[in-house]
Amino acid sequence: MEDYVTLTYRGKQYQLPVLVGSEQERGVDILRLRADTGLITYDPGFANTGACLSSITFMDGEKGILRYRGIPVEELAEHSTFKETSYLLINGRLPSQEELRNFSIMLNDHSLVHEDMKTFFQNFPRASHPMGILSAMVNALRSFYPELQTTEEEINFTVTRLLAKVRTMAAMSYKISRGHTVVYPRPDLAYCENFLNMMFHTPVKPYAFVPEVVRALEVFWILHADHEQNCSTTAVRVVGSGRVNLYAAISAGISALWGPLHGGANQAVVEMLSQIHRDGGDYKRAVERAKDKNDPFRLMGFGHRVYKTYDPRAKIMKKMCDDLLAALDFQDPLLDIAKELEEVALKDPYFIDYNLYPNVDFYSGIVLRAIGIPTNMFTVMFAIGRLPGWIAQWKESMDDPQWRISRPRQIYKGPTETHYVPIDQRGQ
């Protein structure tokens, strides 16, 4: 029997269908609400609005569940690679050995960036934020590859090319910002190793690979590969709904991710730890300030808007953080402050009552710092990891038979009709 929600408005009843997802989550279908009743819904932030039907990622914030295409993120973090997870998200299934091998070959074949792109990078002011550069460069890729994407094969080619080049452009932006020689991708290195080598190799000091570092980066990217309909993913879908090219849609996602309330959160964690260190390392004072409702200070990296229990990604990232720091014998005063804050958050009744557990950003900021990633590159690292999710969401929206251009409504609160007054008749 089909479920309905009955809406009574001005003495008349309307039946609104209830949609049921594969995990039994439910939503009210209001597609005809305005046409039938003249009403719209009011939902700032769209926290109660389902803007699409999707088969990519399932998350349950109450139970701490995150799955890509049905596979728990814990299993992917333990057994998979970032390349394989990317293939899963974009294509809807895990690849065969031959498919993964061909995917890897294509990623290597398209890693190089046009030399004119390097000129673009070099013309940005040296103080430019890497996220601004990356967003501009992704958008500029359309100029270098203007061909239309029509067939499935052409779309897959464009998608793979973007995955390959974003990693190269990110490392290139870092090298140029340092005034260093650009390091080109090597065909003999895997995806993560190639990025680390392009970031840190110099002619006088070749980059020495540490397995724990490579694995930590791999897991970081896997955990950030998709996260349902978040701010940046919604930006990709909304911009993409205008039927723009893939590069423009992804560029919009990068810009949305840049904000401190979204992708910039792990950078904000390290900046917060640095500030506490500069103030004498008094983490207890920071905790008390965070509890004070009249104090604007916030502890970054604690709690999550969606997860009401422990962030499942945080559990994985915590273990990866512990393993990495042990392998590197990493000593850092900020790490000591982070450990003290973590202990407080896991035991203090205030944090427990308000579900303010350390989230994935708390641990990932420490991991990236230990790897040697500069703080202003943290959000770029997030963007590389989130790229396959954005691509998958873009592809799904393009294939949606219910597609329509995004066009939210509003409740107008401005003046009613007001007539124009000539300038010589207006008061001072």
Automatic annotation (TrEMBL):
GO terms for cellular component: cytoplasm. GO terms for molecular function: citrate synthase activity. SUPFAM superfamilies: Citrate synthase. Pathway: Carbohydrate metabolism; tricarboxylic acid cycle; isocitrate from oxaloacetate: step 1/2. GO terms for biological process: tricarboxylic acid cycle. The active site is at residues 304, 361. InterPro entries: Citrate_synth-like_lrg_a-sub (IPR016142), Citrate_synth-like_sm_a-sub (IPR016143), Citrate_synthase (IPR002020), Citrate_synthase_AS (IPR019810), Citrate_synthase_bac-typ (IPR024176), Citrate_synthase_sf (IPR036969), Citrate_synthase_typ-I (IPR010953). It catalyses: oxaloacetate + acetyl-CoA + H2O = citrate + CoA + H(+). It holds the Pfam family Citrate_synt. Signal peptide: none annotated. Keywords: Acyltransferase, Transferase, Tricarboxylic acid cycle. Belongs to the citrate synthase family. This is Citrate synthase.
